């Protein structure tokens, strides 16, 4: 074979060697028994037509490449946001391997999570014994101060009762009776990762505020002047949470971050392994009940939690992953109103700097058409910012978006002259997006790593601004929220625009009349 000790090839070159090419040809001819290249090209061309698009959008019993993940992923995210807390997923090891690898590939950091290791016998007889043994192992091996339990499909299909199982485990001596084990049922076959985030965060708050599953008296709220902040499921949490804390600190606000995994996904290399780092402490969770208000950055990621907070008597300021000028303005003015303090001069200056940067670059982005997909709140934030830039978010798609979300996006379109020809697509997937991009072409695509297949198929450049991002490094370390975050997003829009322009004008003597040094 072509790979040997004297000739080491990287993978992108190795499989171009003659031996591998012959192997692929033989496999295709003798084992795959597929259609001819001519027939395949004919069908491929047909899938780019309006006729096929109409058939594609008429399907109602099949999902092809949904732009979402399952509930337990969101629950694992939440567990990582609390101090010295270990996520315990009641289900199979394979499911948990997916959650750990998904986060580790995105954040380039280890993500701790354990499993009750349910197998076939547990599927028949129930997973109580797995829970008893699993909690004991988790408590004794990894020394957490809290274990946050969630479920997978298997546990939900057979109807395992987490509350009863956890209490039985304590009775059996797996963990001390007073040990904190908040839980949430997170069936993976309904909802998405944002539903799991909501359920798990609600489970933690209910555990501490409502009497720890009936084992102690419920807490009594004594209102104070503090403010809670909930960021929602955010793939840029490392950079964003740092920016959010900076803004609160500039106001001198008394605040509590509810669920903060920014440190555990940003640990240093200094010779010490940190299974737990940072996060919201149990004392902070308890204190958060007394807050006068909670600012939520992702309304659709926290619907149940918002309802619960309101029932507890807190004011809730629900935003939609604000990106850009207007979105950040709303956040800043909410803090100012709640604290009774004026907007710090440094933030006013940053706002002006962002507006200046937008004015410097608007000629390049004005009128450009974008297709974007991702979580509901994130799509509202990006759509608003694109409209502020004079760009057109032509196709806005969220597989986990509902009709209420679609109306909210339409209201954003209607408020801008650039939103006239823009459309919103709730409950649609990336195969729908492919049809849209072929029949109603756009200039750029905003999405996650999986969008690179759409980029290759349609030729539309991809801007990676949606979780997960596996094939690029360190995007999560920079903010997308706040005025500084908007400047980062603006730069990413412009970089892709200029890279595309350079690629289209690079041939000497033919297209390089616009291969400019100055843009």
Describe the fold and architecture.
With 519 residues, this protein is an alpha/beta fold. The protein folds into three domains: 71-214, Rossmann fold; 227-268 and 277-345, Rossmann fold (3-Layer(aba) Sandwich), CATH 3.40.50; 361-505, Rossmann fold (3-Layer(aba) Sandwich). 48% of the residues lie in helices and 10% in strands. The chain is built from 21 helices and twelve strands. The strands form three sheets. It has a five-stranded parallel β-sheet with strand order 10-9-8-11-12, sandwiched between helices. Helix 4 runs antiparallel to helix 19 (430-439), helix 5 (71-79) crosses helix 11 and helix 16 runs parallel beside helix 21 (482-504). The longest helix has 23 residues, at 482-504. The model has no long low-confidence stretch (mean pLDDT 96).
Architecture of the largest domain, according to CATH?
A: 3-Layer(aba) Sandwich
The CATH superfamily of the largest domain is identified as: Nitrogenase molybdenum iron protein domain
- Unreliable runs, pLDDT <50, ≥5 residues? none
Q: What proportion strand?
A: 5-15%
Q: Using the alpha-carbon principal axes, give the shape.
A: globular
Average residue pLDDT? 96
How would you characterize the largest beta sheet?
Answer: 5 strands, parallel
What's the level 1 CATH class of the largest domain? Answer: Alpha Beta
Identify the strand order in the major beta sheet. 10-9-8-11-12
Which class do the helix and strand fractions yield? alpha/beta
Helix segment count?
A: 21
Cα radius of gyration in angstroms: 25 Å
Q: How many β-strand runs? A: 12
Q: Work out the helicity level.
A: 40-55%
Could you tell me the CATH topology label of the largest domain: Rossmann fold
Write down the domain tally: 3
Instruction: State the end-to-end CA separation.
Output: 48 Å
């Amino acid at each position: 074979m072509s790979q040997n000790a004297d000739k080491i090839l990287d993978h992108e070159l190795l499989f171009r060697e003659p031996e591998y090419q012959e192997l692929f040809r033989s496999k295709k001819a003798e084992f795959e028994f597929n259609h001819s290249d001519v027939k395949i090209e004919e069908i491929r061309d047909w899938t780019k037509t309006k006729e096929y698009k109409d058939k594609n959008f008429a399907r109602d019993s099949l999902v092809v490449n949904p732009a979402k993940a399952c509930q337990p992923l969101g629950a694992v995210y939440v567990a990582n946001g609390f101090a010295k807390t270990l996520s315990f997923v009641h289900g199979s090891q394979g499911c948990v391997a997916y959650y750990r690898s998904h986060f580790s590939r995105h954040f380039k950091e280890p993500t701790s999570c354990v499993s009750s290791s349910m197998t076939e016998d547990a599927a028949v007889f129930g997973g109580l014994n797995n829970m008893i043994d699993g909690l004991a192992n988790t408590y004794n091996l990894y020394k957490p101060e809290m274990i946050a339990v969630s479920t997978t499909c298997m546990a939900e299909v057979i109807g395992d009762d987490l509350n009863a199982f956890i209490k039985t485990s304590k009775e059996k001596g797996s963990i001390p009776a007073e040990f904190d084990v908040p839980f949430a049922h997170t069936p993976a076959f309904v909802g998405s990762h944002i539903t799991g985030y909501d359920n798990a965060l609600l489970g933690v708050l209910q555990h501490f505020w409502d009497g720890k599953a009936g084992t102690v008296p419920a807490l009594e709220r004594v209102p104070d002047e503090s403010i809670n902040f909930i960021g929602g499921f955010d793939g840029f949490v490392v950079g964003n949470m740092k920016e959010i804390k900076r803004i609160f600190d500039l106001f001198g606000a008394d605040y509590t971050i509810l669920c903060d995994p920014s440190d555990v996904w940003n640990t240093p290399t200094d010779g010490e392994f940190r299974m737990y780092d940072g996060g919201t402490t149990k004392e902070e969770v308890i204190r958060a009940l007394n807050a006068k208000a909670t600012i939520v950055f992702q309304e659709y990621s926290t619907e149940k939690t918002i309802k619960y907070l309101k029932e507890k008597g807190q004011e809730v300021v629900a935003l939609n992953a604000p990106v850009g000028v207007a979105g950040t303005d709303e956040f800043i003015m909410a803090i100012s109103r709640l604290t009774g303090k004026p907007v710090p001069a440094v933030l006013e200056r940053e706002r002006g700097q962002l507006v200046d940067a937008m004015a410097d670059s608007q000629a390049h982005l004005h009128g450009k058409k974008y297709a974007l997909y991702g979580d509901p709140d994130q799509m509202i934030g990006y759509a608003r910012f694109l409209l502020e830039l004079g760009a057109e978010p032509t196709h806005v798609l969220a597989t986990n978006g509902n009709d209420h979300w679609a109306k909210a996006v339409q209201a954003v379109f209607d408020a801008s002259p650039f939103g006239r020809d823009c459309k919103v697509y709730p409950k649609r997937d990336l195969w729908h997006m492919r049809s849209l991009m072929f029949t109603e072409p756009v200039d750029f695509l905003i999405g996650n790593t999986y969008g690179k297949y759409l980029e290759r198929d349609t030729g539309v450049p991809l801007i990676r601004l949606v979780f997960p991002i596996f094939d690029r490094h360190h995007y999560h370390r920079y903010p997308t929220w706040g005025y500084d975050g908007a400047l980062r997003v603006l730069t990413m829009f412009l970089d892709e625009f200029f890279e595309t322009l350079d690629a289209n004008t690079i041939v000497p003597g033919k297209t390089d009349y616009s291969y400019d040094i100055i843009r």
